[in-house]
Amino acid sequence: MGNLTVAVLGATNYASSIAKKGTSTDITLYDLKKDDDIVTLIEPTRYPDRLAPLFYACSPAKKAIVTIDELNATIGESLVMLQCCGIKSGYFILRNYIQQEKVEQLVKGTILEKFKFAADNPAALKETLPS
């Protein structure tokens, strides 16, 4: 596979449980090396205070991990940004008793409806990357 860039949205510092922290400014980069593959996870550190970090995290990404603690405007903006950036593959991590059906309704008719729902288990998620 080579290199894979993944936007990690929703819960702050979720990527730190998957990969090693690198550079941090408006966005935070995390690196994960598996065999010959390198996975770069990008979190929009200064979002939702500023919209630009969300764009900086999503625009180079090929995949996304979206942690959803509540259905609010911040998650809505994140989903719209993923759609606009053409991210077709990724995972939804549901927490705080968010129902899968609610999220399915939000993404119906978008490219995000192909995202998989995964358990809140960073170790297991780490094993699925970079595929």
Would you give an account of this structure?
With 131 residues, this protein is of the alpha/beta class. 26% of the residues lie in helices and 31% in strands. It has 4 helices and 7 strands; from the N terminus they run ββββαβαβαβα. The protein has helices at residues 52-58, 73-84, 100-107, 122-128; strands at 3-9, 20-24, 28-34, 37-43, 63-68, 89-94, 116-118. The protein has a 7-stranded mixed beta sheet with strand order 2-3-4-1-5-6-7. α3 (100-107) links the parallel β6 and β7 (116-118). The radius of gyration is 14 Å and the shape is globular. The relative contact order is 0.20. The model has no long low-confidence stretch (mean pLDDT 94).
User: Uncertain runs with pLDDT below 50, 5 residues or more?
Assistant: none
- Portion of residues in beta strands equals 25-35%
The structure class reads alpha/beta
Instruction: Tell me the series of helices and strands, N- to C-terminal.
Output: EEEEHEHEHEH
Distance between the termini: 8 Å
Strand order of the largest sheet: 2-3-4-1-5-6-7
Radius of gyration: 14 Å
- Mean pLDDT across all residues, rounded? 94
The beta-strand count equals 7
The major sheet is characterized as: 7 strands, mixed
Helical content stands at: 25-40%
Total helical segments = 4
What gross morphology would you assign? globular
